Each structure stands twice: as C-alpha cells, then as structure tokens.
Amino acid sequence: MSAKAAGITGEYRRVVTALNREFSGPFTSAAARTKLGTTAARTHRLLAYLAERGWLVRIRRGLYAPVPLDAPIPSQFQEDPWLVALRTFAPCYIGGWSACEHWHLTEQIFRGIVVFTVRRVRAVHAEIHGTPFRVRATREEQMFGLRKVWRRHLPVSVSDPSRTIIDILNDPPSGGGIRQVGDVLRAYFDSEHRDDELLVSYATRLGNATVFKRLGCLVERLEIAAPKLF
Q1: What global pTM score does this model have?
Q2: Which residue segments constitute the domains of the chain, with CATH numbers given?
C-alpha cells in the first residue's frame, strides 16, 4: 500500500466522515453498524473496504480504528495500545509495569502492556495489532485505587502509584519480576507519590497476606525507613 490512503468518493467518503466524527479511537463493527444504520453484512463490507484502502485499520476481528488524516504511512499506523485495551478488555485498568512507566517509577522500557480486567480471559498473554498484552483477571470489588487519564479524548483507567505497588507485590511478574519490583519499590518511597498509610490500606483491602510479607521483606532488604507500615 502507498504512503497515502487510496482515494475514495461518494458513499465511502460519507462513511469515513461519519466514523471519524463519531469515534476518536477504536470502535467495534457493531457500534459502526448502529451509527451507520446498515445491515451487519453491509457494515462488514464497508469496513473491510475502507481498511483495505487505508482509511481504517483493522485491529482484530470486529475492531477497527480511524487512521488519522496526517498519518505519514497509513498502512503502518498503530493505534494507542491503551485505547486498544480499553475497547478489548473493559471493564479494565492499565497496571503493572505499564503503570510503573506512566508514574515514572521505572526507567526500564517494556514492550508489552499490562492490563487487569474483570472479563473472563482465556490466556495470560495476547498479541493485538502488534502489541503484546499481559492480561490478569481481577474482580469487580478489586477495581479500586484507580485514576482516569485521557488518551485522545477518551478516559482510560490506570492504577494510581500506591495501587500499582500493591499489584506488583501481589503479582511480581506483572512488575517485571521480583528484582524489578524491588527497584520500583525503592523509587516509590523516594518519590512524591509515597503514601505509607494508603499503601497499607490498599494491601489490607486486597486481602492477600503475601503482599505484606513481600513488602516487609523488600523494605528490610532495601533498608527503607517505613515505621508506619508495620
């Protein structure tokens, strides 16, 4: 495909205009069908045609995203993986090492995205539109300690710094392994995000005693002064 999207006219241009006006991020074929007022078969053909011509990108089956008009190479456009997670795994939140990166608690660069979801998941690892996702199931009552961040006019939930620490203590692989968790923990206690009382509150609410054990072990090993924790 060329660097520019192939030209379209008439009905297809009206469809592209309608989709771009309605959706600022990924959308399902069902949502497009509702917006366009077309049959399922007609919607499928329209979306497939527009994706083939470079006006849409197909993220996975039944999920598309508009290609920005200023995209230098439409065929290589990659949708924001946080928005992909929002549309694929909601209700969910971004956590683990991805939240560590967001809150500047690590200088380590991770290629994949960690997402916690209330949905039933079949596999821990998934690759969607070229991005690896590490997916961890959670429960509705564990959806706390979250903040909304805006990604191209859409709100995405991400664990706040203290909740991020609790999550990676609860599941060290989601933080890059226990050694990396220790580095993040030290960065947290040295940062403006530090909140010892909130950390204890979150750990208590999560209800996993192992979190306290790992926290105590790492605090002692790293020689962090934190008398309020225990």
Answers
A1: 0.90
A2: 10-76 (1.10.10.10), 81-229 (3.30.460)
